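Marked as duplicate of an earlier ticket. Keeping the data here for the record.
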Amino acid sequence: MALLLSRSDVQQLLSMDETIRVVEEAFRQFALGNVIMPQRTVIRVEDYHGLHLGMPAYIGGEMDALGLKVVTVYPENPTKKQLPTIIGTLLLNDPTTGAPLAVMDAGYLTAMRTGAVSGVATKYLARRDARKVGLFGAGVQARTQLWATCTVRDIKSAVVYDVDSEACQAYAKEMTGHLDIPVSPVDDPRSAVEGMDVIVAASSATEPVFDGNWLEPGQHINGIGSHSPKARELDTTTIVRAKVVPDWTEACLVEAGDLMIPLDEGAINKEDIHADLGEVVAGFKPGRENDEEITLFKSVGLAIQDASTASLVYRKAREVGLGVEFAF
């Protein structure tokens, strides 16, 4: 019998620290060569400005997880349809038999695993004394981004900038209560960069959200909002100035305008990309090497994050008896 797990079930079962741990292990297994993960399929539904993505992965080694996520990204949903931008469904299979173990909502799971991977990157790339966070974007993803950053660093305060001032105010109020740190809205993008230790770009912008000349030595950036060849949140100056660590270079070089555009301009070469995140996690390449360098994590999102997190959800659901059993 398989389990049917709703969004509410997934929310009850996932904590940020556990999600960070399983995502970190998935990236370690990736670097060790224990992952099978085809490039995700992308259908661009131009008529409705949407994306339909198919994301399969098998993680071997100590994890042993097999899953497929189907996720849609429709940026106009919140304003036009009163629906989330990201809607996902995940099928988890038994890797020993191929039998279905669970079908679960993957909307909240996606937000958590994306926050978690930035938590992993922040753990290895941000200064250990990082205390201040500047965020671009006040949507669902910005919530788990700040939560994850606070999980791996002793963050004392944060500021948030968004073109929607009401969303910005609401985000600041909610996250102040959730994380018990002061989160303040700002009306100037420069205020979310200068003096910050960690900068998070989690917007739906298609053009750079800040000027790379504003960056200061020792800062770390998580770039997670843009994931298409012609869109970017980070300008060429930022990419040139930073030590760049993608989640997976191969995926970023076909999906991430943040890196593809500077490469096309000739501002950087592929050899300028320092390492994949898994290589840093596994200890094959160094993360942050001093307190002066600017570090940058660029993520387009990988299926190993989904499979590892879904496996965690399934194990915990079985332990506590959550979900509805069903047969196909």
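See parent ticket for discussion. The chain has a mean pLDDT of 96.
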